[in-house]
Amino acid sequence: MAVKWGVISTANIAKKAVIPGIKESKTGEVYAIASRNSDNAKETAEKLDIPVAYGSYEELLEDREIEAVYIPLPNHLHKEWSIKAIEAGKHVLCEKPIALTADETKEMVDASKKAGVLLAEAFMYRYHPRYQMIEEVIQSGEIGEIRGIHGVFTFNSAGAKENVRFKKEWGGGSLYDVGVYPISAARMILKQEPQAATVHAFFSEKHGDVDMMASGLLEFGDGVALTFDCGMWADFRNRLEILGTEGRIEVPSAFVVNQNAQDHFFVHNREGTKEVGVPYVNQYALQADAIGESIRNGAALPFPAEDAVLNMKVLDACLTSAEESKRVEIKKG
């Protein structure tokens, strides 16, 4: 039996990516969608062939048919509505960043444990098989020992002045929006937590004083570092490079799936350059299936909720560093 999903909000990421992904998944179906505007909910439900539309989030959470909820609301509402969904007995997939701070995230994790439901952060790229393939290359020794990682994720939406990403009190800014990608990727690849963060950012008065561009350094153990930049007022890029003593791995499209050759990655070493083809899959569907398998069969989530707390600890340090122009140590535990 398919897991019945409810979607809180008609945000573009839901309509264009996550809802189609759940529909394409093996384990899930989109049963209902809610908006604070009932006409908007009905129109979206009609367009996307969703059986039930609600004019309030509360109504959706009261529906006993719904087992799991996807939350793509503005960042400052993630904690509130995730906990409400959790307390209603729903499993929750919350859009990244899962909250505004590590402390908020811990509250959400504690609530999910108390209620006995799942909580997951929506980093869809981590479910794509290419990262398992990249891990296999690293373990094979083809690039030697890792000496550093460089990741970038930038795009230009500066003209959209009413964008929620430009509201500081709502969790706006490029670090929250796209900086979290290279940060989470480095943690995943290195299998460790950074010890300190140093970030320099461009805060724009024209965009609610949020960071429209940020460049950072995360210090990991053994002298390894992640260098990254992220931005919402720059040309589009989403690349990742893993540098080793004997070679490097280049991922031209590290987080966005184009369903073409750009999704492949390259291994460069003394023997030359090898293009590694990756399967054309819907990473949003794979994300839904990972959660569905956990709900139906008790399979462990590939990325437990506690991982979201650790990622937010790093983001807390990055934001503090950018705002106060200083190196920030990241405490363990």
From TrEMBL:
InterPro entries: Gfo/Idh/MocA-like_OxRdtase_N, Gfo/Idh/MocA_domain, GFO_IDH_MocA-like_dom, NAD(P)-bd_dom_sf
Pfam families: GFO_IDH_MocA, GFO_IDH_MocA_C3
Keyword Oxidoreductase: yes
Residue ranges annotated for the Gfo/Idh/MocA-like oxidoreductase N-terminal domain, each copy included: 4-121
Domain of life: Bacteria
Keywords associated with the record: Oxidoreductase
Family label: Belongs to the Gfo/Idh/MocA family.
Protein name: Gfo/Idh/MocA family protein
Source organism of this protein record: Gracilibacillus xinjiangensis
